[in-house]
Amino acid sequence: MNRHLIAALLTTAAFALLAAGCGGDDEEGGGGGGASDGAAACAGTIGVMAPLTGDAAEQGLEQLHFAELAVDRFNQENGTQLKVEQGDTQLDPGQASTVAQQFISNEGILGIVGPAGSSEVEAIGALIERATLAAVSASATGAELTNGDYPTFSRVVPPDSVQGPTDADYIAQQLDAQKVFVIDDQTSYSTGIAESLIESLEEQGVETSRDSVNQDATDFSALVSRIGADIDVVFLPWQLAANAQLFGRQMAEQGKEATIFGSDGLFSPDDFSIDGSYVSSFAPDITQVPDAAEVVEAFRNEYGEFGTFGPPAHAAATVLATAINAACEGGEASREAVVEQIPSTSIEPSILGQPITFTESGDLEGATFFVFQVTDGKFELVEQ
Q1: Other Cβ atoms within 10 Å of 211 Cβ, number
Q2: According to the model, what pLDDT value does residue 330 have?
Q3: CA dist., res. 294 & res. 313, Å (int)
Q4: Calpha distance 55→353 (Å, rounded)
Q5: What pTM did the predictor assign?
Q6: What would the pLDDT profile of 10-32 be if each residue is shown by its tens digit?
Q7: Are residue 177 and residue 215 in the same domain, yes or no?
Protein backbone atom coordinates (compact mmCIF):
# COMPACT_ATOMS: atom_id res chain seq x y z
CA MET A 1 0.00 0.00 0.00
CA ASN A 2 1.56 3.33 -1.05
CA ARG A 3 1.86 6.28 1.28
CA HIS A 4 -0.65 8.38 -0.69
CA LEU A 5 -3.33 5.75 -0.19
CA ILE A 6 -2.47 5.47 3.51
CA ALA A 7 -2.77 9.25 3.91
CA ALA A 8 -6.14 9.24 2.18
CA LEU A 9 -7.44 6.50 4.44
CA LEU A 10 -6.20 8.30 7.54
CA THR A 11 -7.88 11.51 6.45
CA THR A 12 -11.16 9.66 5.85
CA ALA A 13 -10.95 8.08 9.29
CA ALA A 14 -10.31 11.45 10.91
CA PHE A 15 -13.39 12.97 9.28
CA ALA A 16 -15.44 9.97 10.40
CA LEU A 17 -14.38 10.52 14.00
CA LEU A 18 -15.25 14.20 13.83
CA ALA A 19 -18.68 13.34 12.46
CA ALA A 20 -19.43 11.09 15.42
CA GLY A 21 -20.38 14.01 17.68
CA CYS A 22 -24.00 14.57 18.52
CA GLY A 23 -26.30 17.51 19.01
CA GLY A 24 -29.90 18.64 18.94
CA ASP A 25 -32.36 21.30 19.87
CA ASP A 26 -35.39 21.31 22.15
CA GLU A 27 -38.13 23.79 21.32
CA GLU A 28 -38.34 24.46 25.07
CA GLY A 29 -34.78 25.76 25.15
CA GLY A 30 -31.64 24.07 23.93
CA GLY A 31 -28.77 24.42 21.50
CA GLY A 32 -27.73 22.76 18.28
CA GLY A 33 -29.78 21.70 15.34
CA GLY A 34 -30.41 17.99 15.69
CA ALA A 35 -28.34 15.07 14.53
CA SER A 36 -27.18 15.59 10.96
CA ASP A 37 -27.22 12.92 8.30
CA GLY A 38 -24.45 10.43 9.00
CA ALA A 39 -23.79 11.74 12.53
CA ALA A 40 -24.25 9.55 15.57
CA ALA A 41 -27.30 10.58 17.60
CA CYS A 42 -26.74 11.84 21.12
CA ALA A 43 -27.46 8.92 23.44
CA GLY A 44 -27.64 8.30 27.16
CA THR A 45 -29.97 7.36 29.99
CA ILE A 46 -31.85 9.50 32.49
CA GLY A 47 -32.70 7.76 35.76
CA VAL A 48 -35.98 8.55 37.49
CA MET A 49 -36.09 8.14 41.27
CA ALA A 50 -39.68 8.17 42.52
CA PRO A 51 -42.04 6.26 44.83
CA LEU A 52 -43.51 3.87 42.27
CA THR A 53 -45.04 1.59 44.88
CA GLY A 54 -46.39 2.25 48.36
CA ASP A 55 -48.56 5.00 49.81
CA ALA A 56 -47.18 7.73 47.53
CA ALA A 57 -47.24 5.67 44.33
CA GLU A 58 -49.86 7.86 42.66
CA GLN A 59 -47.56 10.88 42.76
CA GLY A 60 -44.48 8.83 41.90
CA LEU A 61 -46.01 7.19 38.85
CA GLU A 62 -47.23 10.57 37.67
CA GLN A 63 -43.67 11.86 37.90
CA LEU A 64 -42.29 8.85 36.04
CA HIS A 65 -44.79 9.14 33.22
CA PHE A 66 -44.25 12.88 32.77
CA ALA A 67 -40.48 12.29 32.65
CA GLU A 68 -40.95 9.55 30.05
CA LEU A 69 -43.17 11.82 27.99
CA ALA A 70 -40.58 14.61 28.16
CA VAL A 71 -37.78 12.34 26.97
CA ASP A 72 -39.89 10.90 24.15
CA ARG A 73 -40.80 14.38 22.94
CA PHE A 74 -37.20 15.58 23.23
CA ASN A 75 -35.98 12.63 21.15
CA GLN A 76 -38.56 13.33 18.45
CA GLU A 77 -37.71 17.02 18.29
CA ASN A 78 -33.92 16.70 18.46
CA GLY A 79 -33.02 13.38 16.90
CA THR A 80 -31.51 12.17 20.17
CA GLN A 81 -31.62 8.61 21.50
CA LEU A 82 -32.15 9.19 25.21
CA LYS A 83 -33.74 6.57 27.44
CA VAL A 84 -35.36 6.47 30.87
CA GLU A 85 -34.53 4.01 33.63
CA GLN A 86 -36.84 3.90 36.64
CA GLY A 87 -35.92 3.37 40.26
CA ASP A 88 -38.55 2.81 42.95
CA THR A 89 -37.61 4.60 46.18
CA GLN A 90 -40.97 4.10 47.96
CA LEU A 91 -40.32 7.57 49.46
CA ASP A 92 -37.85 5.89 51.81
CA PRO A 93 -34.31 7.29 52.34
CA GLY A 94 -32.80 3.82 52.70
CA GLN A 95 -34.37 2.60 49.48
CA ALA A 96 -33.32 5.83 47.78
CA SER A 97 -29.69 5.11 48.73
CA THR A 98 -29.97 1.64 47.22
CA VAL A 99 -31.41 2.98 43.97
CA ALA A 100 -28.77 5.74 43.82
CA GLN A 101 -25.98 3.20 44.12
CA GLN A 102 -27.55 1.15 41.33
CA PHE A 103 -27.76 4.23 39.13
CA ILE A 104 -24.19 5.23 39.91
CA SER A 105 -22.91 1.80 38.91
CA ASN A 106 -24.75 2.09 35.58
CA GLU A 107 -22.33 4.15 33.50
CA GLY A 108 -25.01 4.90 30.91
CA ILE A 109 -27.02 7.01 33.37
CA LEU A 110 -25.96 10.63 32.88
CA GLY A 111 -28.43 12.34 35.21
CA ILE A 112 -31.32 11.73 37.60
CA VAL A 113 -34.82 13.15 37.79
CA GLY A 114 -35.48 13.14 41.52
CA PRO A 115 -35.47 12.10 44.20
CA ALA A 116 -39.02 13.03 45.14
CA GLY A 117 -38.54 13.72 48.86
CA SER A 118 -36.18 15.96 50.80
CA SER A 119 -35.06 13.18 53.14
CA GLU A 120 -34.18 11.08 50.10
CA VAL A 121 -32.00 13.87 48.72
CA GLU A 122 -30.21 14.02 52.06
CA ALA A 123 -29.63 10.27 51.85
CA ILE A 124 -28.08 10.32 48.37
CA GLY A 125 -26.54 13.80 48.16
CA ALA A 126 -23.02 12.76 49.10
CA LEU A 127 -23.21 9.65 46.91
CA ILE A 128 -24.07 11.52 43.73
CA GLU A 129 -21.53 14.23 44.51
CA ARG A 130 -18.72 11.66 44.64
CA ALA A 131 -19.99 10.18 41.38
CA THR A 132 -20.34 13.66 39.79
CA LEU A 133 -23.89 12.73 38.86
CA ALA A 134 -26.51 15.45 38.45
CA ALA A 135 -29.92 15.17 40.11
CA VAL A 136 -32.77 17.55 39.27
CA SER A 137 -35.70 17.10 41.64
CA ALA A 138 -39.30 17.76 40.73
CA SER A 139 -40.65 17.86 44.29
CA ALA A 140 -37.95 17.98 47.00
CA THR A 141 -38.54 21.32 48.72
CA GLY A 142 -36.33 21.23 51.83
CA ALA A 143 -34.72 24.66 52.08
CA GLU A 144 -31.39 23.26 53.28
CA LEU A 145 -30.89 21.07 50.20
CA THR A 146 -29.35 23.92 48.21
CA ASN A 147 -27.08 25.30 50.93
CA GLY A 148 -23.99 23.94 49.19
CA ASP A 149 -23.75 20.47 50.71
CA TYR A 150 -24.99 18.79 47.52
CA PRO A 151 -23.40 20.68 44.60
CA THR A 152 -24.71 18.31 41.90
CA PHE A 153 -28.31 18.77 43.08
CA SER A 154 -30.82 21.27 41.70
CA ARG A 155 -34.62 21.51 41.48
CA VAL A 156 -37.38 22.98 39.38
CA VAL A 157 -39.68 23.70 42.34
CA PRO A 158 -39.46 26.34 45.10
CA PRO A 159 -38.06 25.58 48.57
CA ASP A 160 -39.98 25.39 51.83
CA SER A 161 -38.60 28.80 52.72
CA VAL A 162 -41.09 30.03 50.09
CA GLN A 163 -43.89 27.58 50.90
CA GLY A 164 -44.06 28.36 54.61
CA PRO A 165 -44.53 32.14 54.24
CA THR A 166 -46.92 31.69 51.29
CA ASP A 167 -49.17 29.41 53.33
CA ALA A 168 -48.84 31.59 56.42
CA ASP A 169 -49.85 34.72 54.50
CA TYR A 170 -52.95 33.02 53.13
CA ILE A 171 -53.92 31.61 56.52
CA ALA A 172 -53.44 34.93 58.30
CA GLN A 173 -54.69 37.35 55.66
CA GLN A 174 -57.29 35.44 53.65
CA LEU A 175 -58.62 33.00 56.26
CA ASP A 176 -58.17 35.54 59.09
CA ALA A 177 -57.07 32.74 61.42
CA GLN A 178 -56.26 33.65 65.02
CA LYS A 179 -55.07 30.24 66.26
CA VAL A 180 -53.35 27.55 64.21
CA PHE A 181 -52.48 24.00 65.29
CA VAL A 182 -49.46 22.65 63.38
CA ILE A 183 -48.82 18.89 63.23
CA ASP A 184 -45.64 17.65 61.51
CA ASP A 185 -44.97 14.05 60.49
CA GLN A 186 -41.42 13.95 61.90
CA THR A 187 -39.70 13.97 58.48
CA SER A 188 -37.21 16.66 57.49
CA TYR A 189 -39.62 17.82 54.79
CA SER A 190 -42.43 18.24 57.30
CA THR A 191 -40.50 19.85 60.14
CA GLY A 192 -38.88 22.34 57.78
CA ILE A 193 -42.20 23.59 56.46
CA ALA A 194 -43.69 23.66 59.96
CA GLU A 195 -40.88 25.83 61.32
CA SER A 196 -41.03 28.23 58.36
CA LEU A 197 -44.81 28.56 58.64
CA ILE A 198 -44.83 29.09 62.41
CA GLU A 199 -42.18 31.78 62.21
CA SER A 200 -44.17 33.67 59.57
CA LEU A 201 -47.50 33.26 61.39
CA GLU A 202 -46.12 34.51 64.68
CA GLU A 203 -44.63 37.55 62.92
CA GLN A 204 -48.20 38.34 61.84
CA GLY A 205 -49.60 37.94 65.34
CA VAL A 206 -51.21 34.52 64.83
CA GLU A 207 -51.05 32.21 67.85
CA THR A 208 -49.67 28.75 67.10
CA SER A 209 -49.36 25.40 68.85
CA ARG A 210 -47.52 22.36 67.59
CA ASP A 211 -47.50 18.58 67.83
CA SER A 212 -46.13 15.73 65.76
CA VAL A 213 -47.04 12.22 64.65
CA ASN A 214 -45.11 9.40 63.03
CA GLN A 215 -45.62 9.14 59.29
CA ASP A 216 -46.60 5.48 59.68
CA ALA A 217 -49.48 6.23 62.08
CA THR A 218 -53.00 5.24 61.05
CA ASP A 219 -55.01 6.34 64.09
CA PHE A 220 -55.12 10.07 64.74
CA SER A 221 -58.00 10.14 67.20
CA ALA A 222 -55.81 11.22 70.14
CA LEU A 223 -54.34 14.10 68.13
CA VAL A 224 -57.77 15.13 66.89
CA SER A 225 -59.06 15.24 70.45
CA ARG A 226 -56.47 17.95 71.21
CA ILE A 227 -57.92 20.32 68.63
CA GLY A 228 -59.64 22.93 70.77
CA ALA A 229 -62.82 24.72 69.79
CA ASP A 230 -60.81 27.93 69.40
CA ILE A 231 -58.49 26.46 66.72
CA ASP A 232 -59.24 28.00 63.33
CA VAL A 233 -56.82 26.06 61.14
CA VAL A 234 -55.02 22.73 61.45
CA PHE A 235 -51.90 22.79 59.30
CA LEU A 236 -50.64 19.42 58.04
CA PRO A 237 -47.25 19.50 56.30
CA TRP A 238 -47.48 15.80 55.46
CA GLN A 239 -46.14 13.70 52.63
CA LEU A 240 -48.92 11.09 52.58
CA ALA A 241 -52.25 12.49 51.40
CA ALA A 242 -54.14 9.34 52.42
CA ASN A 243 -53.14 9.97 56.05
CA ALA A 244 -54.56 13.48 55.87
CA GLN A 245 -57.80 12.08 54.47
CA LEU A 246 -58.09 9.75 57.45
CA PHE A 247 -57.23 12.62 59.80
CA GLY A 248 -60.00 14.72 58.27
CA ARG A 249 -62.55 11.96 58.64
CA GLN A 250 -61.62 11.48 62.27
CA MET A 251 -62.00 15.25 62.79
CA ALA A 252 -65.54 15.01 61.41
CA GLU A 253 -66.30 12.04 63.66
CA GLN A 254 -65.29 14.10 66.70
CA GLY A 255 -67.17 17.19 65.52
CA LYS A 256 -64.06 19.32 64.97
CA GLU A 257 -64.75 22.28 62.69
CA ALA A 258 -61.27 23.69 62.15
CA THR A 259 -60.16 24.08 58.53
CA ILE A 260 -57.44 21.77 57.26
CA PHE A 261 -54.61 23.42 55.34
CA GLY A 262 -52.06 21.05 53.83
CA SER A 263 -48.65 21.41 52.24
CA ASP A 264 -47.88 20.15 48.73
CA GLY A 265 -47.78 16.53 49.86
CA LEU A 266 -51.57 16.62 50.18
CA PHE A 267 -52.09 17.57 46.54
CA SER A 268 -53.47 14.21 45.49
CA PRO A 269 -57.13 14.38 44.44
CA ASP A 270 -57.51 10.60 44.52
CA ASP A 271 -56.25 10.40 48.10
CA PHE A 272 -57.35 13.66 49.72
CA SER A 273 -60.77 15.24 49.21
CA ILE A 274 -61.86 16.84 52.49
CA ASP A 275 -64.28 19.50 51.28
CA GLY A 276 -63.36 23.07 52.18
CA SER A 277 -59.72 22.25 52.88
CA TYR A 278 -56.79 24.15 51.38
CA VAL A 279 -53.61 22.76 49.85
CA SER A 280 -50.54 24.56 48.60
CA SER A 281 -48.56 23.31 45.63
CA PHE A 282 -45.11 23.94 44.20
CA ALA A 283 -46.54 23.83 40.67
CA PRO A 284 -49.47 25.42 38.86
CA ASP A 285 -52.40 23.70 37.24
CA ILE A 286 -50.75 23.33 33.83
CA THR A 287 -54.11 22.81 32.15
CA GLN A 288 -54.34 26.61 32.45
CA VAL A 289 -50.85 27.21 30.97
CA PRO A 290 -51.06 27.89 27.19
CA ASP A 291 -47.52 26.64 26.50
CA ALA A 292 -48.40 23.30 28.10
CA ALA A 293 -51.42 22.52 25.92
CA GLU A 294 -49.71 19.91 23.73
CA VAL A 295 -48.16 18.17 26.73
CA VAL A 296 -51.48 18.12 28.57
CA GLU A 297 -53.21 16.53 25.58
CA ALA A 298 -50.43 13.99 25.05
CA PHE A 299 -50.36 12.97 28.71
CA ARG A 300 -54.12 12.60 28.96
CA ASN A 301 -54.21 10.50 25.81
CA GLU A 302 -51.53 8.18 27.15
CA TYR A 303 -52.08 8.12 30.91
CA GLY A 304 -55.29 9.95 31.83
CA GLU A 305 -55.79 12.75 34.34
CA PHE A 306 -53.06 14.12 36.63
CA GLY A 307 -52.32 16.54 39.47
CA THR A 308 -49.42 18.90 40.11
CA PHE A 309 -46.70 16.39 41.04
CA GLY A 310 -46.02 15.19 37.51
CA PRO A 311 -45.51 18.35 35.43
CA PRO A 312 -42.33 19.46 37.25
CA ALA A 313 -40.83 16.04 36.40
CA HIS A 314 -41.39 16.90 32.74
CA ALA A 315 -39.48 20.14 33.31
CA ALA A 316 -36.69 18.34 35.20
CA ALA A 317 -36.32 15.70 32.49
CA THR A 318 -36.22 18.42 29.83
CA VAL A 319 -33.44 20.19 31.75
CA LEU A 320 -31.39 17.00 31.86
CA ALA A 321 -32.05 16.12 28.22
CA THR A 322 -31.03 19.63 27.16
CA ALA A 323 -27.85 19.45 29.26
CA ILE A 324 -26.96 16.02 27.88
CA ASN A 325 -27.53 17.22 24.34
CA ALA A 326 -25.33 20.26 24.92
CA ALA A 327 -22.63 18.00 26.39
CA CYS A 328 -22.82 15.85 23.26
CA GLU A 329 -22.03 18.86 21.10
CA GLY A 330 -18.61 19.02 22.72
CA GLY A 331 -17.99 15.33 22.14
CA GLU A 332 -19.32 12.25 23.90
CA ALA A 333 -21.53 13.24 26.84
CA SER A 334 -20.18 12.49 30.31
CA ARG A 335 -21.58 12.93 33.80
CA GLU A 336 -19.07 15.68 34.46
CA ALA A 337 -20.06 17.55 31.31
CA VAL A 338 -23.77 17.30 32.20
CA VAL A 339 -23.13 18.70 35.69
CA GLU A 340 -21.27 21.60 34.08
CA GLN A 341 -24.10 22.30 31.63
CA ILE A 342 -27.05 22.40 34.04
CA PRO A 343 -26.34 25.80 35.69
CA SER A 344 -26.51 27.51 32.30
CA THR A 345 -29.43 25.49 30.96
CA SER A 346 -32.53 27.55 30.25
CA ILE A 347 -35.94 26.18 29.26
CA GLU A 348 -38.18 28.89 27.84
CA PRO A 349 -41.06 28.58 27.47
CA SER A 350 -41.74 25.73 29.89
CA ILE A 351 -44.89 23.82 30.76
CA LEU A 352 -44.76 25.34 34.26
CA GLY A 353 -45.70 28.74 32.88
CA GLN A 354 -42.34 30.33 33.71
CA PRO A 355 -38.78 30.08 32.39
CA ILE A 356 -36.66 27.35 33.97
CA THR A 357 -33.35 28.91 34.97
CA PHE A 358 -31.28 28.27 38.06
CA THR A 359 -29.69 30.36 40.78
CA GLU A 360 -26.07 29.70 41.74
CA SER A 361 -27.28 27.36 44.47
CA GLY A 362 -29.43 25.27 42.12
CA ASP A 363 -32.83 26.72 43.00
CA LEU A 364 -35.42 27.78 40.45
CA GLU A 365 -35.31 31.49 39.66
CA GLY A 366 -38.52 33.29 40.64
CA ALA A 367 -40.24 30.19 42.04
CA THR A 368 -43.62 30.61 43.75
CA PHE A 369 -46.17 28.42 45.51
CA PHE A 370 -49.86 28.17 44.63
CA VAL A 371 -52.87 27.73 46.93
CA PHE A 372 -55.85 25.54 46.02
CA GLN A 373 -59.18 24.89 47.76
CA VAL A 374 -60.85 21.49 47.69
CA THR A 375 -64.42 21.83 46.45
CA ASP A 376 -66.50 18.76 45.65
CA GLY A 377 -63.34 16.73 45.28
CA LYS A 378 -61.72 19.20 42.86
CA PHE A 379 -58.70 21.38 43.54
CA GLU A 380 -59.46 24.95 42.49
CA LEU A 381 -56.75 27.61 42.33
CA VAL A 382 -57.42 30.49 44.73
CA GLU A 383 -54.01 32.15 45.11
CA GLN A 384 -50.78 32.41 43.15
Answers
A1: 12
A2: 72
A3: 16
A4: 29
A5: 0.79
A6: 333 333 333 333 433 333 444 33
A7: yes
